[in-house]
């Protein structure tokens, strides 16, 4: 993350933390609804997306962070041409991209509680969140799992008719701590959320690993940047493979009365 962006994010996080009640601050930040409206770009994007939601009444919603927001990038390099993936797989389904760079579960909770599921009736919601919990707000697997569960609870309370496609936190190559907690939170989801009939879990780790189970740097765009960053964001090609993986499930859920 570039230094000015990192400073802006930390300033917003400190401002948000100052608004938490003592009880929230003492428990789990991953389950608290925290705004980033103090960041101009985030505020502008939130307001733009509110207008899109009201105008479009989407059938399919993608909730997430920068990995989801990347669907709006169009290259010019093939590994950064996400827009063509969105155009092929999601634009025909009357979908909307609600990915916000840097968001953790706490920021997504604030967005949902402040309008992103109001006045609409989506049939399917794709949820990919949690990677930034291991970075910016630094919550461990158990705390992050509670944050994801809170997101699911809020989504279901507001849109009980919607089916949720829950994609497990994607692999990355950031640190041994992040890798261990990524595996742990995904294991918790597999073990504890299987009884929810409206939640359909997707484990996409195989798209990022070789035959020995090692995470492949070439599945990510970050090493291609100048200067390179630790592998975190899938390339457009990897994102296309993920879209192909979940396409039959999404089609089936959209077709279900």
UniProtKB/TrEMBL annotation:
Origin: domain of life: Bacteria
A GO molecular function held by the record: hydrolase activity, acting on ester bonds
Keyword Chloroplast part of the UniProt annotation: no
PROSITE patterns referenced in this protein's UniProt entry, alphabetically: TAT
Pfam families named in the record: Lipase_GDSL_2
Entries under InterPro entries matching the protein: SGNH_hydro, SGNH_hydro_sf, TAT_signal
Domain SGNH hydrolase-type esterase: 63-239
Residues spanning the signal sequence: 1-25
Keywords: Hydrolase, Signal
Similarity comment text for this entry: Belongs to the 'GDSL' lipolytic enzyme family. Platelet-activating factor acetylhydrolase IB beta/gamma subunits subfamily.
Protein name in the entry: Acetylhydrolase
Organism: Endobacter medicaginis
């Amino acid at each position: 993350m570039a230094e000015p962006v990192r400073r802006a994010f930390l300033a917003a996080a400190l401002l948000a933390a100052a608004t938490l009640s003592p009880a929230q601050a003492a428990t789990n930040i991953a389950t608290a609804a925290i705004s980033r409206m103090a960041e101009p770009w985030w505020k502008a994007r939130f307001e733009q997306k509110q207008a899109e939601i009201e105008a479009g009444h989407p059938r399919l919603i993608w909730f997430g962070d920068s990995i989801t927001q990347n669907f709006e990038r169009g290259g010019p390099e093939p590994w950064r041409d996400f827009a063509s993936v969105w155009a092929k797989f999601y634009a025909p389904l009357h979908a909307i991209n609600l990915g916000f760079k840097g968001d953790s579960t706490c920021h997504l909770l604030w967005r949902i509680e402040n309008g992103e599921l109001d006045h609409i009736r989506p049939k399917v919601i794709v949820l990919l969140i949690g990677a930034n919990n291991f970075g910016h707000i630094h919550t461990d697997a158990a705390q992050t799992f509670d944050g994801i569960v809170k997101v699911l609870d809020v989504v279901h309370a507001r849109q009980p008719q919607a089916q949720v496609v829950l994609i497990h936190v994607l692999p990355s190559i950031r640190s041994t701590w992040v890798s261990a907690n990524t595996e742990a939170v995904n294991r918790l989801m597999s073990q504890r959320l299987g009884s929810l009939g409206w939640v359909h879990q997707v484990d996409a780790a195989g798209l990022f690993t070789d035959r020995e189970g090692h995470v492949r740097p070439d599945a990510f765009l970050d090493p291609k940047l100048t200067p390179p960053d630790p592998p975190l964001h899938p390339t457009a090609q990897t994102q296309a493979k993920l879209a192909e993986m979940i396409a039959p499930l999404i089609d089936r859920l959209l077709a279900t009365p």
